[in-house]
Amino acid sequence: MVPAAAAAQLGALAALLVIFIPMAMAGYHLSRNKMLFFSGALFISLAVFVHLTPYFPLHFLLPSTSPSTSSSPPLPPLPLSCLTSLHTSLHFHPNTPTSFSFSSASCHFRPLSPSSASDLLNGSLILIAGDSQSRLFALSLLALLLPPSDLPPAESALFRRHSDYQISIPESSIDLHFLWSPFESNLTSLLRTTPSPPPDVLVAGSGLWHMLHVNDPVHYSRQLSAVRAAADLLLPPPPPPHLFWLGLPELVGPMLNTEEKRERMNLTVSRRYEREGRRMGRSSGGPFFYLDVGMMTRRCGEACTADGMHYDRAVYDAAVQVMLNALLIESRQRV
Q: Which terms are listed as keywords in the entry (predicted)?
């Protein structure tokens, strides 16, 4: 049996002999009439194409549509289990508590570099609202997005007592707004009046001020229900914003800096508040991806806090990386 490639070569050669020899002869006789010559040449060329087409594979005639040659092939979606394992795969190093890593190889978690984080958030409006924990989270995110020389003045402006803050990062077209909202009612009002279009990423958290000044977990739960209802209204527009809830940190009672705090923000009360806050997460039917700051602070330990409430930046750096990895997973699921 003659191989297909050899058959194609023989067919092409026969076509050349049968078609082009008569074409040359016709050209010789018609050379005095150029219009007649070109008309004849066009007719014969079409005949050549028709006769030769069966001898060439289709992929020589049409552009390739193979995924392997695509410049940006779609990434396969990651399983939902990757979202639920983000926190369990996060580890603080015992000898160097200011550093952390991810241990889940199957989900490809990794701390994003400044350039990768800027690419991921490029063109985004980021709204961060809450108390001092949210402010520390905003600082860690800015530390990743800003050049090192720009961070000190940004930190000074961000930490003006009980004030809002906003910054635009031209290099990545990112706008970041921090809104001082220490009580849950502040967050509810904010969510109900969020301008259109809504932010691309919203990070919120509260509870410390309520625990100190109201000290009633049942009332706190009712206030969170109002926040959840307001956040639900942000979800219908396509695409919906990415919502994150900052959980409460582990409070170290003896280290708190006033007697009132040590009395009202004891371990029993703070754990009840933390449980109520978890209901904001999707696993409990809430609209937010829950950033488990309580787990992170417990893993980092008492060595990571100087006042029993506010922790070293490594904790908030880790929370930022959990958020960024969650955004990566969700963006691949939406493809």
A: Membrane, Transmembrane, Transmembrane helix
Residue carrying structure tokens 């020589």: 60
Assess whether 14 and 108 both reside in one domain. Answer: no
103 with 241, same domain: the answer is yes
C-alpha to C-alpha distance for 176 and 277, rounded to whole angstroms:
24
Q: Do both 22 and 138 map to the same domain?
A: no
* Phi, psi at 106, each rounded to 5°: -65, -30
Burial 38-56 (b: 16+ CB within 10 A, else e): eebeeebeeebeebeeebe
Q: Please indicate, yes or no, whether residues 323 and 221 belong to a single structural domain of this protein.
A: yes
User: Would you say the pTM of this structure is higher than 0.90?
Assistant: no
Residues 43 and 109 in one domain: no
pLDDT in tens, 103-151: 887 888 889 999 999 999 999 999 999 999 999 999 999 999 999 999 9
Task: Give the relative orientation of helices 34-52 and 4-29 as an angle to the nearest 10 degrees.
Answer: 170
Tell me whether strands 289-291 and 90-93 are parallel, antiparallel or unpaired.
unpaired
Containing 304, the helix (H) or strand (E) segment is: none
Q: How far is the C-alpha of 85 from the C-alpha of 281, rounded, in Å? A: 14
| Cα gap 259→272, rounded to integer Å | 20
Place of tokens 């219009």: 35
Structure tokens at 41: 């040449």
Q: Give the pair of three-digit tokens for residue 17.
A: 């002999």
Q: How many domains does the chain have?
A: 2
Same domain, 154 and 275: yes
Asked whether 232 and 311 are in contact (CB, 8 A), the reply is no
Same-domain check for residues 206 and 147: yes
